[in-house]
User: Fold DNA 3'-5' helicase from Tilletia laevis.
Amino acid sequence: MWARDLRAVVVDEAHLVYDWGIASGSGRAAFRPEFGKLGLLRAKLNANVPLLAMSATLSGPSLPSICSALQFGRLPFFALDVGKERDGCTYDIQPFRHAASSFHDLLTILQPRDGSNVLPKTIIYVNSRSKATMAAELLRQHLPESLRDQVASFTAMDSAYEKRKTMAGLRSGSIRVVFATEALGMGIDLPDVDMIIQWELPKDFRGLVQHFGRGARGPGSRA
Assistant:
């Protein structure tokens, strides 16, 4: 039996148990109701199998619901809050000098480093698919021709092929700048991102934390 050999159960991005798995107070159905039923798995497990739930953006008000859904409390458990500080991350706020819709300020920020012909690896978060594709095209138009192929966009509406192609380019370094929506967020692990730029106000603070969490993920890296 698989349960006999199981050593632990780990629920990553545990805030989604609440955000996606538990119906909202507005009466809308849960987006992924199965997430809210993960606790049922514990009934099939030996009582000694530990369950670990982790999240960088779990809010205090949702904690009781998540604990209940995962059946924490039925067995001894403890909660540990280690904060959201990230080693290797430096934060900065810059005022717009041009209209935000022009994206011209990026021409100052996104400069090849050390005389190379390579842009800093950067993810720029915007709030819609149309802005991501438009911004990528605008930036390409204003960059030297030799740098234009280093710019791309990434949204939930891209085809699976387009997403794989963009991610492969990011990993190989052929793509250096990506305008992205929430689609390039949780679960994306790139070790060498130089900058995360939040171009527009995110939907909520948790989204901002998730975005900034894409930087400085590799050993000794900085963003």
